[in-house]
Amino acid sequence: MNLKINFQSYLIKITTYIIAIIMVLDSNSIYSKSIYSSSLSKIEFIILIVAISTLIILSNNINKNWKNYLLITSILFGYIFIYVLLQRNRIAIFTGITDLGKFILMFSLAYLVYKNSKKPFLMTAYCNVVFIVAIVSLIFWIFGSNLHLLQPTGTFLSKWNELDDYQGVLSYYNLYFETQTLNQTIRNSAIFVEAPMASLTFSMALCLEVLYQNNTKFHIIKVLVLIMAIISTVSSTGYICLLLTMGYLLLTSKSSNIYLLIVKTTIIPIILVVGMILINYFLSQKLNSNSGFSRKRDYINSFIAWINYPFMGTGIDIDGNFLLPSGIKIGKFGYSNSFGRVLGENGIYILSLYLISIINSVYTSINTKDTKRLFLTFILIYLFITTQFVNTYLMLFMFSLIFVWKPNNILNSQVN
C-alpha cells in the first residue's frame, strides 16, 4: 500500500515538473521562436494533454463537482469560440482555435487540480526549474559574456515574430544565448529571445518563491540567485518587480529580532529609495532611446486600434500596418506588452475575461485578508501591462488560477 502511495506521489511530482518545464519553454524561449517552433509547440501540447490528464486522475485535491466545471468550461469555450469563428481568415481561425485549446488545458489544470490547494506544487516545480535556468545563465553570463573565459560554441537561428527574418545568435551549448546588448554590455537573456522575457520569468519565479516557498529547502539561496539573475537582465521591468517584492516583504514581515527590525526600518528603506532613483534614471534613458520610443508607439497604436474597434478589436494576429476604414494605417502594436496586444487585437470582448479574473481575485483577497494572493494579483497586472507573454501557458494558467482559487487548509499536506 505504501509502495503504491509513494509511486503515485512520485508520478505526480514528475508530471508536474514536466508541465513546469513546458511553461518555461513556452514563455518566449528562443527554442519556441526557432525553425523548430511549430513542431515543438505541437509536441508540448500533446505532452500537456497527457500530463494534465494524469494529474487530474491521480491528484488527491481533485474538485469533485464536475457539473460546475463542465458548466463553466462550456460557457467559456462557447464565448471564446464565437470570437474565433468571426475572424477574417482561416489562419486567424486556426490560431484562435490553438489558443483556445491551450486555455482549456490550463483552466482545467487550475480548476480540477489546484482550485483548493493552498500551495500548488506546480509553483514549487516552476520555481525550481527557473532556478536551474537562472544558475546556468549566470554561469555563462559571468564567465562567457563578461569575462570571456568561456567561448560560444555556435549560433542558433531564431526570430521574435512572424514579420522578422531568422537571425543567428551566439549560443553556449544551446543552453545560453547572447541576444541583446545595452551600451556594449551583453544582457542576460538566458534561454529567451530577449532580456525582458528572461526578466519576466525570473520575476515571476521570485514572486512565487517569496510568497509560497519560504519554508522550503534552499529558499534563501534560490531567492539570491533569482535576484542576481534579474539584475543581470538589465531590465527596468525586472528591477521594479524586485523593488515591489522587497517593499511587500518590508510591509508584511513580522519579527521581534532587534537586528531584523533595524534592517527593516533603516537599511531596506534606503535600498528602496536608491533603487527607485536608479530605476527612474534607467526609465528616463530608455524612454529617450529608440526602444523607449517604440514602446510608447506600441501603447498608442494599441489604443488607436481599440478606439476604432472597441468591442472585438482588429482581430487575431494583426502584426502591423492595419488599414482603418478611413484609409489610415495603424502601426505595429502589441509586441512589447500583453495589455496592448489583447486590447488592440481582441477588444473588450476578450479583455473582459482578464478583468473578471483580476476583479474576482482582488475581491477574494480582500474578503479573506489574503495579502499574498493580493500581491500576486498585483504583480500579474504589472507584468500584463509591461511585458509580452500573451497566450503563453504561464499567463493562461496564472489568470485561470486566480479566478478559481479557493484554498482549503485541510489540503495543506497533500502534494497538489
Give a quick rundown of the structure.
This protein is 66% helix and 5% strand. It is mainly α. Strands 1-2-3 form a three-stranded antiparallel β-sheet.
Key descriptive features of the protein:
transmembrane helix, 3-stranded antiparallel beta sheet, 416 residues, globular, 66% helix, mainly alpha
Explain what this protein looks like in three dimensions.
It comes from Lactobacillus johnsonii. This is Polymerization and export protein. Keywords: Membrane, Transmembrane, Transmembrane helix. It is built from 13 helices and seven strands. The relative contact order is 0.12. The longest helix is centred in the C-terminal third of the chain and has 31 residues. It has one domain. Strands 1-2-3 form a three-stranded antiparallel beta sheet. 66% of the residues lie in helices and 5% in strands. Strand 4 and strand 5 form a beta hairpin. The protein starts with a helix and ends in a 12-residue tail after the last helix. It is globular, with a radius of gyration of 22 Å. The C terminus is likely disordered. It is mainly alpha-helical.
Point out poorly predicted stretches.
410-414
Spatial separation of the terminal alpha carbons: 20 Å
Radius of gyration: 22 Å
- What is the mean pLDDT? 86
Order of helices and strands: HHHHHEEEEEHHHHHEEHHH
Strand order of the largest sheet: 1-2-3
Number of domains: 1
Categorize the overall geometry.
globular
The assigned structural class equals mainly alpha
Overall strand count: 7
Helix content: 55-70%
Which percent range describes the beta-strand content? 5-15%
The biggest sheet amounts to: 3 strands, antiparallel
How many DSSP H or I helices? 13
